[in-house]
Design brief:
Blueprint lengths: L15 H14 L5 E6 L10 H5 L9 H9 L6 E6 H11 L7 H13 L3 E5 L6 H14 L3 E5 L1 H12 L5 E3 L6 H9 L12 E5 L2 E4 L25 H4 L4 H6 L5 E4 L2 E2 L10 H5 L4 E2 L2 H13 L5 E4 L8 H14 L4 E8 L6 H9 L2 E9 L3 H7 L5 H11 L6 E8 L6 H14 L3 E6 L9 H7 L41 H18 L10 H12 L6 H14 L2 H16 L2 H9 L4 H4 L5 H27 L1
Parallel strand pairs: 1-2, 1-3, 3-4, 4-5, 8-11, 11-12, 12-13, 13-14, 14-15
Antiparallel strand pairs: 5-6, 6-7, 9-10
Helix pairs in contact: 4-5, 12-13, 20-21, 21-22, 21-25
């Protein structure tokens, strides 16, 4: 028996190392007050904070749903928990004062710790591309040497070894944690709460990374988190930033949060980590639990906008219809959307009608690729014929704003296969097309393909925020603008070239060819969506230009004039946008302001015809 163990009643004979490790932490940090602080790190670099984006609520401020579930999972234990969302707090305080530093989050976190005096701190990280913000928080906390530290979240599930080897935490919890967290706290605080032992908790003892033994199954997550919400200023989040593009579209002044009905997904897409993190099958929450949560948030906290974060929201059709009926029965008038892509094969006209009646503003569909070979390779469940059928049904519900998600840059994907995705996005003709560059995520089936190509570094390419890197001539042998259609169809392309393909696909599909710009009764959908988007990208002259045309098409020449002036200012002050306007023949539309609907329509049609003719000319020339 180890002399380090201070409570013989917590000894697990099958895991003496774990007990000894806990005993050492109990001696070191006096884990007696059973106070736990849960921390959501900043999601942006304060040193690069853009005040224009800040004051237009352009930064994302996503409520830390995972921490809410963890706090709720220990409500029956003799533990006092609190949550600090550094992402929200830093945005809130930065808006209040001009004199902030890149270390503002440290001051906020230190003040919280001094006031709450936790003996245990947990920190979460969702995405690996946020590790440069997550790891400094862990390092800051470890150097305090005042409490034990737990790291968790999807990123930790794949990087726990590196975190423990770097000495950035005492425990790393992997995958879902609503059963792991209570068990670990039961042991750390010697509460004797009879929580069953679970695996998936990692720690480093005497130079060796070890894992706890116990149950390996997923937790029950049908948990009521309404009490945990009292730890957040949820009704104030809309004042600090936006939830996503849909919350901007619905109205930036409306309070928002997230909802979850199911965990897991019927699909097994090769680029996704859901099946790795949550296993096969789908587990759901009861309608009663959800209604209680919505009722509390709507009636007591004034939240009116909800985003479903389910990876497969439509898997439980019966449950959804029951929820919609309960919302109507109780008069809980809300607005909701699903920023995560839904599965098109589950969409039917009767379900769409029920969704609209329940307050749905829109959703995204996970299409990913328009090439049959790629779709088979990544295991997309919906057929392309079904997707086209769904797009026809959606035309009957113009009040919905529906976007398609597309991915380019899969390992070994040819330019011809990318062109098939571009062509399909324009054929299916949804309200918006979100093009994304495929990311090498650990835990996905295609990660090994990126490893073979030496492309395991994640990117976060946003052209308007990378203007200096994309000026013409900075990178040799890169086709730009409409010239991307000169790329050999059989070739695989570099990451720099991929970024230019991304840009051209997005400009043509979402702006030049956007269906809502060519239907007078639907133009408002375009202007409303892009007006929200430009708050996050205030220097994007392309968005400003099409807002100028869009508002003119609506007959709103006050707004049109505003965006015309903004476009000219952005264009004249940026060599980058001067180049872009030349690439897509936008300049004639900027030389003289349109003063009628007809003039604006002519400009738009001329740009579309020029783009179409040039694309066709390049393809025909290359074929000859």
């Amino acid at each position: 028996m180890s002399e380090n163990i201070i409570d013989e009643n917590i000894i697990d004979p099958q895991d003496a190392s774990f007990s000894a490790y806990i005993g050492n932490l109990q001696k070191r940090f006096l884990l007696a007050n059973a106070r736990v602080l849960l921390v959501n790190p900043p999601h942006f670099d304060m040193a690069a904070l853009d005040t224009a984006i800040l004051h237009s609520n352009g930064y994302f401020v996503y409520p830390p749903m995972g921490l809410l579930y963890l706090a709720a999972s220990i409500e029956d234990m003799d533990i006092r928990a609190d949550i600090i969302d550094l992402n929200y707090e830093t945005l809130k305080w930065a808006k209040k004062t001009k004199n902030y530093s890149a270390d503002l989050w440290k001051e906020i976190l230190r003040n919280k710790i001094d006031g709450f005096s936790p003996s245990l701190v947990g920190v979460t990280c969702m995405f690996s591309n946020e590790r440069n913000l997550f790891e400094p928080v862990l390092d800051f906390l470890m150097k305090m040497e005042r409490f034990a530290i737990i790291a968790g979240g999807p990123h930790v599930s794949f990087e726990y070894k590196d975190l423990l080897d770097a000495g950035l935490c005492h425990f790393a919890l992997t995958k879902e944690c609503e059963h792991k967290f209570p068990y670990l706290l039961d042991r750390l605080f010697s509460l004797k709460a009879s929580k069953p032992p679970v695996s998936g908790i990692y720690y480093k003892d005497r130079g060796e990374i070890r894992e706890t033994s116990g149950c390996e199954g997923p937790p029950n997550f049908d948990i009521d988190i309404t009490n945990a919400y009292r730890l957040l200023e949820i009704e104030q989040y809309c004042r600090a930033g936006s939830l996503n593009q849909y919350s901007r579209y619905i109205g930036q002044e409306e309070s928002f949060t997230t909802l979850q009905m199911n965990r897991g997904c019927r699909g097994h897409c090769a680029f996704c980590t859901v099946h790795t993190l949550m296993g096969s099958g789908i587990r759901g929450r009861s309608v009663g639990t959800l209604i209680n949560e919505i009722r509390y948030l709507r009636n007591e906290r004034g939240v009116t906008v909800f985003d479903w974060v389910d990876d497969d929201l439509l898997s439980n059709r019966k449950g959804l219809l029951s929820l919609f009926a309960a919302l109507k029965r109780e008069g809980l008038e809300i607005k909701w959307h699903s920023n995560n892509g839904v599965m098109a094969s589950s969409l039917s006209e009767d379900l769409l009608a029920s969704m609209v009646e329940s307050g749905c503003a829109g959703f995204k569909i996970g299409i990913e690729s328009g090439n049959p070979e790629i779709r088979k390779k990544i295991r997309k469940p919906s057929s392309m014929d079904k997707l086209l059928e769904v797009s026809e049904s959606l035309n009957k519900f113009p009040e919905l704003f529906v976007a398609g998600n597309y991915i380019i840059g899969f390992p070994d994907e040819t330019f011809k296969q990318m062109l098939d995705t571009f062509a399909f996005a324009n054929k299916i003709n949804l309200d918006w097309s979100g093009f994304y560059i495929c990311q090498p995520l650990k835990g996905t089936d295609i990660y090994s393909g990126f490893e073979e190509l030496g492309l395991t570094k994640q990117t976060n390419y946003i052209p308007v925020r990378n203007q200096g890197d994309n000026l013409p001539g900075n990178v040799q042998d890169i086709y730009r603008g409409m010239d991307i259609f000169k790329i050999s169809h059989d070739s695989t392309i570099s990451q720099h070239q991929l970024q230019e393909v991304w840009f051209t696909f997005s400009i043509i599909t979402n702006f030049i060819n956007n269906k809502n710009l060519y239907k007078k009764e639907l133009v408002h959908k375009f202007t409303k969506w892009v007006s929200g988007a430009i708050n996050a990208y205030p220097s994007d002259a392309g968005m400003a230009f099409f807002l100028y045309l869009g508002f003119a098409l609506q007959g709103d020449f006050t707004a049109s004039s505003k965006y015309y002036k903004l476009t000219r200012a952005l264009y004249e002050g940026s060599a980058y946008w001067q180049s872009r306007f030349g690439q897509f023949a936008f300049l004639p539309g900027l030389q003289r302001q349109c003063n009628t609907v007809e003039e604006s329509y002519d400009v738009l049609v001329n740009i579309r015809q020029h783009t179409s003719c040039r694309q066709r000319h390049i393809v025909q020339r290359d074929e000859n």
